[in-house]
Amino acid sequence: MRFSFITPAYNEAAYLPRLLDSVEIARHAYRGGSGQIEVIVADNCSTDATATLAAERDCRVVRVEKRRIGAARNGGAAVASGEILCFCDADMRIHPSTFNVIEDTLASTSFVAGATGITPEKWNLGFAVTYALLVPLVALMRMDTGVVFCRREDFQTIGGYGETRRFAEDVDFLLALKKLGKTRGQRLVRATSAKAIASLRKFDEHGQWHYFPLMFRGALALWRGEKGLEDFADRYWYRPKR
Questions:
Q1: pLDDT for the residue 197
Q2: This prediction's pTM
Q3: Which of 5, 15, 38, 157 is surrounded by the most beta carbons within 10 Å?
């Protein structure tokens, strides 16, 4: 198997079919053949039809009991057989050329890992301002979101995603890969010719300007310590309205 496409999912019955439709298009566009790509859904204790929908679409479904996003990603990776691991959130849709672009990108030994980046499914002023403020940091760090990809042996070398963090595990993951790559003269890459389409459901749920007070609440949570961080993470990531 060349690729393992892994998506963590908690109560994603409304969004998962959209993602899987886009993955199917990208699988058939892959020049190495669709049979070289497996799709894994890491069901993180869903109470809706997420697991059933995934199984009906011939995905490999793995149940992950630990309610941590890093644990869900690792649970999917634990059963993966692909040489290249790809991680994508369930509310996204991927570009038709995703697997070809990743294949071509990792053909170069200059890159240790990377991400495709995103384009939003719609725009509003609040998101546009937030996006504009984050773009320079993303470009400077060469760290992005969308479909995150790496070679399986490198995933194993760094120990996968951290499972103690309730959020920002994806940042730690890329930083660990960046550090690994630096020892070999490699760097992270942004494969932006295959951007994923991201939903703005958090902006719909919390408001288009929510990111700025969110940063303040995050700083306050850090000051409050462990309990503050737990409450902060639960409100924004672990108790969504779905």
A1: 97
A2: 0.89
A3: 5
Cα–Cα distance, 196 to 129 (Å, whole number): 20
Instruction: Determine whether 237 is exposed, middle or buried from the number of CB atoms within 10 Å of its CB (0-12, 13-18, 19+).
Output: middle
- 87: nearest Cα among 7, 207, 165: 7
Question: CA angle 158-95-89, nearest 5°?
Answer: 50
The three-state (H, E, C) secondary structure of 39-57, written as one string: EEEEECCCCCCHHHHHHHC
CA angle 93, 95, 191 (to 5 degrees): 115
Neighbours of 160 (CB within 10 A): 19
107 pLDDT higher than 80: yes
- Among 3.40.50.300, 3.90.550.10, 1.10.540.10, 2.130.10.10, name the CATH number for the domain at 3-196: 3.90.550.10
Q: In the chain, what are the domain boundaries?
A: 3-196
